[in-house]
Amino acid sequence: MKNLIKYILIMLVFTGMIACDTLDPIDENRLDFDFVSSDPASAEGLLLQGYSGLVNQYSFSEAATDDAVNNQMNNGYKRIALGELNAQYNPAARWNSFERVFWMNRFLEIIEAGEIQWSRDEDINEMFNLRMKGEALALRALHHFYVLQAHAGVGTSGTLLGIPYFTEFIEADGDFNTPRLSFEASVQAIMQDFDDALALLPTDYGLNQGDVDPLYASYDYSKYEVVNGGQYDLRITGRIVKALKARLALFAASPSFLNDQGYYNMAANYAGDVLNTIGGISGLASDGVEFYTSDDDKDSAEMLWRGSQGGNSSTYEERMFPPSVNGKGEINPTHNFVMAFPMQDGYPATAANGYDEQNPYANRDPRLDKYVVLNGSSFGGGNINTGEGGGIDRLDSIPQFSTTTGYYLKKLLRPDVRINSDGTTTGKRHFNVYFRYTELFLILAEAANEVGGPDQQVNGMSARDVIAAIRDRAGITQPDNYLASITTKEAMRDLIKNERRLELSFEGHRFWDLRRWGSSLNETAKGYFYDGSNYVELPSIESRNYQPFATYMPIPNAETLKFSALEQNNGW
How far apart are CA 29 and CA 45, in angstroms? Predict the structure, then answer.
C-alpha cells in the first residue's frame, strides 16, 4: 500500500489538470507540503483527485456474468468468468481506491490546519472550507465503499469482514499493517463519513436564495453563490450523498452480507427521502429507458450524478457496433438476458404466455429492441443479420469480431454514430453516469419489499408502485395484469431482481448484484441462431467457472504478503 501514496507530494503531474495557472518548477519539479498546504490551486488539486476513479457505467463487467460474452479473448472479465479469477489476477479489484482515500486524508489535514486562503473575504473563505471538507469526507467514504464492495467477505477465520478504514494520511515510511474491520463496522464507518459530509454540503449547487440549506442561510447570498453556485455542478452534493447512503445500506442488508431488516429499512428510507424531492413516483424520468441517446446540454432528469459532458466521440461504438457497420462487436448479450425480457403484456416469455421460439422477438417488452441488436435489426447505419446469409455479422463468421451469441449490444451506444469504411467517423456525445434515479427507485422497491412485502409504504411509495411505473414507462401493456397477480414478498423479489437486471443492464451492476444476492455465478451463457429456416438455441456458448467461494472477491495477494494483519478472504 506504500506505493499508493509514495509520490503524494509530486504535484506537478496534476497541476495541468487542476489549476488554471502554471506553477514554476521547484526543487526538480517537486512541490513540498508547506507549499501545497498554502497554495489554493495545489491544495484543491488534492481534493480533485477524489473525483478520479469514480465508477461509471462503462466497465462492461457483464461479460463476467450470464448477461454477456466478450468476443476479445484477452478481456479481463472474460478471463475471470472462465476460471482465472485469483488473488494475483483480478481485473475487478478496487484496492487501488485507497489511493484516493489518502489524497482525501491529506486534503483534510490541510483544511483542519486552516492555512489555505481561498478568498480574502472571510465569509467566502469560511464557506469554501466547509464545503470542501464536506466533499473530501464524502469522497473518502465513497472510495472506501468501492473497496468494501469488491473485497468484503468471509475471512479465513470464518468471520464476515470488511476493510481497513483509513481516516489519517500515512507517510510512505509509516505503518500500513492495519487489520480489516468487521463488515458492519466498515459500513458504519462509511456511513459516519457520509453523515459528516451531509452536515457540510449543500443539497444542490445553484440553489435559489429561499432554498439555501440552514448551514449557509446566514451568509450573504451573493457570497454564497461564489462558493456554492451552479458553476460547481457535477461535484458531490448532499442529495448525491443521501443516494449513496441508500446504495450502501442495500448492499449491507443483502443476503450475502448482513441480511438485516434494519439496513433494508434504512435503504428504503434514504431512497424515499431523495425521491420525495422529485415528486415520488411522478418524478420517474420519461427518458430513463434511453437516457444515453441525447446531445442535449441540459442534464437528463434521469441523471442524479454524472461526469462532465465530453465532446463528440465514437470510442464505445467502435468497440461494440457489429462488423458490417465497422465495429468490433465486442459485447454480445446472451440469450439468457434476452429471455429475461417479458412479453409485451408483462408476462414471462414462455410458450404458455404466447412466446413463439420461431418468432422470438414478436410481442416482447419494447426494451428488448432498444437494448439488443436482434437478428434483422437496423442499427448503426446498416441492417444487421446474425443468421445464415448474414455475411460478416453472422455467428462467429469472423472470430473475435462477429457475434458469439447471435446478438450485439445497443444499450449505452449512440445509434446515430457512424463509423465509415474510409476510417472517418461521425461521433456523438456520451455521459459518464455515476448514479441514475431509476437505480434509486429500484433500491426503494427492493428494500421496501424486504421490509414488508409488495405493498409496504415508504414515503408514500411501495415496491408495487415503483415497479408499475417502471414497467409502464417501458411500454408494458396496461393494465399490468401480471404485476397485479404478484401477492407475496418472494414473487415480488423475483420480479424486482428481473426489472433491475433489465433497467440497469450493461451499467456495471449485475456482476455485483449476483454476489450480494448469493445467486449462482455459474449460469452458462446461451446463444440463439437462425440457421436459414429455424431458430436454434445454442445451450453452451461459454461456461462460467467460478469457485464456490467467489461470492467474495480476494484481497490482492501482494497486500496480504506485505501486511500480516490483513486477513485474506476464505478460499483465496
Answer: 16
